[in-house]
Amino acid sequence: MLLLLGMFYLSIGCLASVLTRNQIIAAIISFCAITLLFFLGLVQFILLDVSSATRDLLGYFSAIEHMGTFSRGVIDTRPIVFYLSMTVVMLALTYQAFQSRKWRL
User: Which end of the chain is more exposed for a tag (fewer CB within 10 A), N or C?
Assistant: First the structure.
């Protein structure tokens, strides 16, 4: 599970690196995106007036929630599919951004 999470976070970093020319800005974008995804589960406890479906959706994107269920011994395939598919999507976006930059120059 931790390997999948690391793959997803690295793909976010690769996408941010391709989108900017400055490495510091890419690091800041990556840090903000990863921090937002990591703490997204805590937002569901802050926003109490939203619907339960919205809170469940926010909890589904939260890495804290996925790691919490995994640490309790519950092996669920949903986080595995989520991290694999989001890694593929981020890498596909990275490839497309890299190809568009290559043809633009």
Answer: C
pTM of the predicted protein model:
0.84
- What is the tally of structural domains in the chain? 1
For residue range 26-47, list pLDDT tens digits in order. 999 999 999 988 888 777 778 7
The answer to the question of residue 103 being in a domain is no
- On whether the CB atoms of residues 34 and 9 are closer than 8 A, the answer is yes
Range of the domain at 7: 2-98
End-to-end CA distance of the chain: 39
Q: Look at residue 20 in the predicted model and tell me its pLDDT.
A: 93
Please report whether residue 39 resides in a domain.
yes
Q: Tell whether 10 is covered by a domain.
A: yes
pLDDT at residue 94 tops 90: yes
Tokens, residue 94: 């990275």
